[in-house]
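ugh finaly. both done.
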Amino acid sequence: MVHDRDVTAFADRAPGYEQGWLGRMHRDIAERTVDLALSTCPRPRRVLDIGCGTGYLLRSLASRCPGAIALHGVDPAAPMVEVARTSADDDRLHFSSAAAEHLPFVDGTFDLVVSTTSFDHWSDQQAGLGECSRVLVPGGHLVLVDQFSLWLSPTLVITHRGKARTKRRCSRLLRAAGLRRPAWHELYSVIVKAVTATA
């Protein structure tokens, strides 16, 4: 799927994204991601969520991180950002429209960067991971959640050519971006996995 079509598809789904069985699944994955993020970085001060959608994950993190100064979410789909803004009930939450490949933050801004089920939609995964590395403080943590499995290898030939849908390919991209110590975690079902890495 072309990147612009991905953005359009998510823009169209924004008003009801958290509803129904699919919404429940996304919320469940987000809660498991929050648990993993806080086990990796127990007291984050500044957090970035890439592909934040409606902001559910950041709202959950904010409720569990009273010491956090700021929690920023970016998403290329402007309607998702608008839903996130109207749902925000905490002054520390900030949302803006941006893509992973061009993050509007200075170097070394965040001690925790998370991304949940958006990595597969990044138009340039290597550039996006480079941006993650750039905006993390030294020793900061990345928590990346998406579909990774050898079962997905056939999709690399046709629909997802050039994407990192296996652990091996993703680990290679992480190291090339300067992110160290990738550690893999089972998160949800047999395909949705998480990788943590350090700047």
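ok and the 2nd:
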Amino acid sequence: MIEFKKCKGNGKAKGHGCGKMVKAKFRKYGLGMECKCYHKWLLNTDIGQSIVAQTTLQATKNRRSLEDAKAESKNKDSLSYLLVNVRNVVHKYIKLRDKGKECISCGAKWHSDFQAGHFFKAELYSQLKFDSDNIHGQCPKCNIFLEGNLNEYSLRLRKKLGKNKYLDLVKKAELCKKDTKFKWDKFKLKEIRELFKEKIKMLKSVQN
């Protein structure tokens, strides 16, 4: 047997019922859902409008969070994101590899604030941006204030790499100048990132 009760309203909607006899199961919402007075209460009272506003705000927030997550996921596959991400991974490797070694330019004792300094500048020699022979631990003074301190860098780099590897690096730089149409692609960047992640793992296992 279906039980009917008068729509009185309860909770926040108490006292705002329409007085109609409605099925008892609908009263659990506070007002009669079957007689539609609940919707009227939401739209025509301050408390009801407040609930609508809060619900709308929450729904909008959830939708925006989802949209932000999708945008972030999409951005992570963008070329600009990958270039920065790969740079961070490569520089992390360089700092780990050269930890404890002197500054490649001035010979200053190693410090935790040492940076990954390029011999052939990344802005001018894009193909050498992630070449580990072209990047070495460097103090902030040489890397930033002395713009690489390249004369000293050259002398110490030749000694560190050896004559043949040093000359190979110089040849690569000469080819970079000629290849003015070079552009990074996503596949190659992801490949480099994975390679250096493996190198970092190997270094950590050896150092530990």
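summary for the 2nd one i guess: DSSP finds seven helices and four strands in the chain.
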